[in-house]
TrEMBL record:
Electron transport as UniProt keyword: no
Ranges of residues in domain Fe2OG dioxygenase: 185-306
Organism: Viridothelium virens (Speckled blister lichen)
Domain of life according to the entry: Eukaryota
PANTHER family the UniProt entry points to: 2-OXOGLUTARATE (2OG) AND FE(II)-DEPENDENT OXYGENASE SUPERFAMILY PROTEIN-RELATED (PTHR47990)
Listed Pfam families: 2OG-FeII_Oxy (PF03171), DIOX_N (PF14226)
Protein name as annotated: Flavonol synthase/flavanone 3-hydroxylase
Family affiliation: Belongs to the iron/ascorbate-dependent oxidoreductase family.
Length: 344
């Protein structure tokens, strides 16, 4: 049964119990899959509870994230993100990235980068990924970090397989339909830290957290702390954003651009952003006269993408005489590289 999570009666992200898909009867699986498809068609986001990733492992991942980002800068830079966008692994410092929404002109990108994202990140992925091998700290700098992150990636990849099974079933396709297209599991597991930032810097545009954008793979998992700050564009109300409050024990999942294209726009890739959370006096400190600091924010994201050589063309059942194909075929690798080059 879907319930609603929102800070406003005007907008809601459905909350769906995924247990019935993972462990239910065939009819229960179909019912849950239909709910998920409906949500992805209309909102683009869904909260799943009872999703199969142990809560203790999620909590431990947040603990490892804080340990990593608390390291000295020179230690974190022992695992640096390489230049460019072809190798998306390792540590990126504050201001390294500037997310943009479908901006590909070089001059326009450089203009946007004058106000970079005020965040830092660490990314890893599948240990068998030969295209983007992982970049780790020396083991003695943070013992146990690498082993845990490799294990957590496996948990996220399993959940992604199940979600794709539900999407396929929702389209009356075999639950394994998407597996061959994602067989290499070339995903990005990203730890994110948004440091405290002054209210004045945010409101004046001097600094930003994460500007409005949509993701560009196939789907995204998000585990967030209890700080808040995520906002999602309201369906059929472009440019208007509503906060999406964190839900303990839930994972937030959204459709990304490549899957929206793949579904011939049957599924919705929704624009979202990270801004300052509500500033509560008891949780803030003064920063200069009359200026307050937001709380630090941590999140864990896993970006799924299809194998690079997969040709993205309209899915069966999403096109026909009454609804022709909207896009030319393109490989998943070509599409994602184009988007990454506009980010880094």
């Amino acid at each position: 049964m879907a319930t609603l999570a929102s800070d406003s009666d005007q907008f809601s992200v459905p909350v769906i119990d995924f247990h019935s898909f993972l462990n239910g009867t065939d009819d229960q699986k179909k019912s849950t899959a239909a709910q998920i498809k409906d949500t992805f068609q209309n909102v683009g986001f869904v909260y799943l509870i009872n999703h199969g990733v142990p809560g203790k492992k999620v909590e431990e991942c947040f603990e490892w994230s804080k340990k990593f980002f608390n390291l000295p800068s020179e230690t974190k830079m022992l695992a640096p993100h390489p230049p460019g966008a072809s190798h998306h692994r390792g540590y990126s410092g504050i201001g390294r990235e500037r997310v943009s929404q479908n901006v590909f002109d070089r001059d326009a990108i450089e203009e946007l980068r004058r106000v970079p994202d005020n965040k830092e990140s660490f990314e890893s992925g599948n240990v068998e990924d030969g295209i983007q091998p992982n970049i780790w700290l020396p083991e003695d700098k943070l013992p146990g970090f690498r082993g845990f992150m490799e294990d957590f990636f496996v948990e996220c990849a399993a959940l992604i397989r199940h979600v794709f099974g539900a999407i396929a079933l929702g389209f009356s396709l075999p639950p394994t339909f998407f597996q061959p297209f994602h067989s290499r599991e070339l995903y990005q597991l990203r730890l994110l830290h948004y440091p405290p930032i002054s209210e004045h810097a945010l409101l004046s545009g001097e600094k930003g957290r994460l500007d409005a954008h949509s993701d560009f793979g196939t789907l995204t998992l998000l585990f967030q702390d209890d700080v808040g700050g995520l906002e999602v564009e309201r369906p059929k109300d472009a440019g208007k954003f509503m906060p999406v409050r964190p839900i303990e024990g839930a994972v937030l999942i959204n459709i990304a651009d490549c899957l929206m294209r793949w579904s011939n726009d049957s599924l919705k890739s929704t624009v979202h952003r990270v801004v300052a959370p509500p500033i509560m006096p008891e949780d803030t400190s003064e920063h200069g006269e009359g200026d307050k600091m937001t709380s630090a924010r941590y999140s864990i994201v896993c970006f799924a993408a299809a194998n690079p050589d997969v040709v993205v063309d309209a899915l069966p059942g999403t096109w026909g005489e009454q609804k022709p194909k909207k896009y030319e075929p393109i490989t998943a690798g070509e599409y994602i590289l184009k988007r990454m080059e506009a980010t880094y």
